[in-house]
Amino acid sequence: MRRDTSAFLAWLKQRHIATGINAPRPKCGLPQRFVDQDDHEEQLRRCLTDDSLPLDVRIVGALVRLYAMPLVRIVELTTDRFHRDETDAYLVIDENAVILPPSLATLIEEQIRNGGLANIIRTPTPDQPTYLLPGRPPSRPRNTQTFSLRLKQYGLPTIGARNTAMLTNIIDLDAVVVADLLGLHPKTAHRWAQYAQTSWAAYLQAREPEDIDTTIRPGSSPDLSELLKE
Questions:
Q1: Model-level pTM?
Q2: How far is CA 175 from CA 26, 40, 97, in A?
């Protein structure tokens, strides 16, 4: 499509019918914004432990920082995607269930209980369960732009956090696993893997050898790991 548009614009320019018009270049798709790893972990800690934050902000902020979920997919989550068994709690992302940290599972359960009042005018059915984060009216999901601004107000921006979470996941897990768990296209996961490999190699080259602790990988801080078990 872009090739046809470019050819048409070139034809217009040659005949002096139109000038100064260029076909927009496609985005390279590479991430531009990130959050410092320490800041990323501190933001996640706030989402999981800070009771002064609104419940919905904590849930969305944690989902972005743990699973690199975009807001457009988070607001479409329905209550039937959360379930427990005898040992763990799960959230179905795309077609696969991921194990939730106990603290996040507790927040989601509280949201489901509180959301019942908002959903009272919409009777859930197997074919149309209620939204985890109901909008206004409750039969519609939240507005992503409005919610993005709300997250920023609480110091929880989404784009940089999502990129950082994606990079952390792709470093810790195989690209195929990340694509399967998070519902990414395999080519997208592969591009992220290539980007992560290049970025991590550059990072290691920039660090002094004595400063590098190879036993701790990005996103695997011992304190945070303990927090996610709670």
A1: 0.73
A2: 24, 21, 17
